[in-house]
Task: structure prediction
Amino acid sequence: MRDVAVVSFAQAPNVRNAGAMNEVEILMPVVAQALEKSTLTLQEIGFTCSGSSDYLAGAPFSFVMAIDAIGAWPPISESHVEMDGAWALYEAWVKIQHGAADSALVYSFGKSSPGQIRDVLALQLDPYYMAPLWPDSVSLAALQARALLESSAYGEKDLAEVAARSRRNAQSNPKAQLAGDFDLAALLAEPYLVSPLRKHDCPPITDGASAVVLAAGDLARRICERPAWIRGIDHRIEPHALGVRDLTRSPSTELAGEKAGAAQGPLDLAELHAPFTHQELILRDALGLKEGVEINPSGGALAANPVMAAGLARIGEAASRILSGSANRALAHATSGPCLQQNLVCVLEGE
Amino acid sequence: MGELCGVVGIGQTKYASKRGDLSIAGLVREAGIRALEDADLDWKDIDAVVIGKAPDMFEGVMMPELYLADALGASGKPMLRVHTAGSVGGSTSIVAASLVQAGIHDRVLTVAFEKQSESNAMWALSSKQPFSPHINAGAGGYFAPHIRTYMRRSQAPDHIGMLVALKDRLNALKNPYAHLQMEDISLQKIEASPMLWAPIRYLETCPSSDGACAMVLAREALAKDAPRPPAWLVGTAMRTEPTMFPGREEVNPQAGKDCAADVYAQAGITDPRKDIDVAEVYVPFSWFEPMWMENLGFAEEGTGWQMTDEGATALDGDMPINASGGVLSSNPIGASGMIRFAEAALQVRGMAGDHQIDGARTALGHAYGGGSQYFCMWIVRSERP
Result:
């Protein structure tokens, strides 16, 4: 395996509604910033890969406009996944492993504000038996939370603690959408949104974008003093039908974590893509994260959830702490699909 | 560069306007099972699944790979979903191959599909967007001006497009999977068909199809022991350029030329018309055959139409193009690129049936998409490099 590292990361301010700015306009400064930090130009980059979903913009080929935005001229070697940008990063990592490139630009973007994201995500479900019932994403998450609360020692207070800690951590993240000090008792006094989930147990609705530059070996060392080396990366999917899964566990995260070598050394921090509070508990258990591992220092998806870009942002956030020298070994996680159906784990480390 | 990769299994569904007998899951599974049978493998032998399709609005399912994980035996495995517009079937094949070439997996199943009967492609391609004028043109309206420009520049005679349409529909009669089976096709019939977007007549345009294509890709040690001859990958390339900017050459795009130069260099091809025995080229509107002949370097600029006129691109010509009947005979959009790649592989495996080109040893698979801006190509050979 070739040594491949994250050498730069940039993200847009996470906002509830970017208004008249389209996805391309949100993305352009982010890509420019990530490239600038990497000191590479688009023409020096070996491979470009992006992640986005047509259903957020309500337009076919929404990623095609992004090609205009990044200025792909002369023509570039490029691909796109209809997945969170974390999987675009995976494809780019594979390309570098193959030897077809030494560096890669990865970006993703999502503008959730134009639609009703809860309902839009219902269109991810089995189109014959599930989608016609329009079970929205918050209601499905609530089913999962209910199953967890009833089958474990976790209580609603544990959920509120995740929310309070996420927003407290987000205070040091200038790009976060929701941040602040929240009193646990006050959070628990709030009404249910969809029982047993309260509003703070759910992610905010976010417009945003992220970009990462990857580089191999000596190129990475030339670009930065302390590259965030990808020591392992793996992703797994579970069956789609909710009835055949144990929603209180995440076997796909467990397996991806094992394949990525998460337990092969002590972790300083984990950036978990848990849009709902109870999902962080499930993920922590699946990954066997021990006391002392800092969880979501950025505030995570509960502080900003740009759909399609939130997973890539987890990798970027984890990497930036290694790049800055404040952490040595970190885990980043991304999820996709209803109730954590698909999961990716990436383990990053300093020199 | 990297591990050697071979195509060891290929599966296609029967292409049709409406496969009402199958769900979306049933459609991809039919192709997947046939690819596994060809490779004499079972679902458990597959390490990862890479799936591709064109815009999700074609079926009205957002990120349908999530729902298709069960049908493709992907549970517990890595699954990737590629989308690069019309070229997606090609890029999906290349992403799957890179997983083997990078040494990450031993065997990968790759599938591409479209079930266009679930929705309306014209609507899905032209939904109204904020801040831009609504052009309900579809693909034909978009590409017709490119063709008119080609005709003006090259002085090609008007009948060339009809010759391509006739040839590909006659080839389709030799391919049991092809959607259009037009026993009575003739130049007269094509000429008499309605003009849709001048100069594109109804019978010079691709159909709208339901269908899926699948391939099993394996690393060298497994591919050389496969029960049937593998097709060895000797080159893969992808290139993208922006949709619009002043002075962009849309008829003979630079991205296509660069992609071809890259894949030929990998495969050691110096004279493509001589070194390649057969090509499956993405021709959704008849006139794109001569245009791509030039873009791919089979003919000098301005002379691609002469290849069609002289019969060089026919089954018995020196450079057979789309022996399978091509996109003009079957077009499940998201799968159309993979069908080109798979048909190229079938030719060098000697398994193309009635449309087999005798002695085909080197074949090109080609796909393009967007506004002639996404290009994917691969070269496959019968002999292990």
In short: The CA atoms of residues 243 and 304 of chain A lie 30 Å apart. The longest helix of chain A spans residues 23-38.
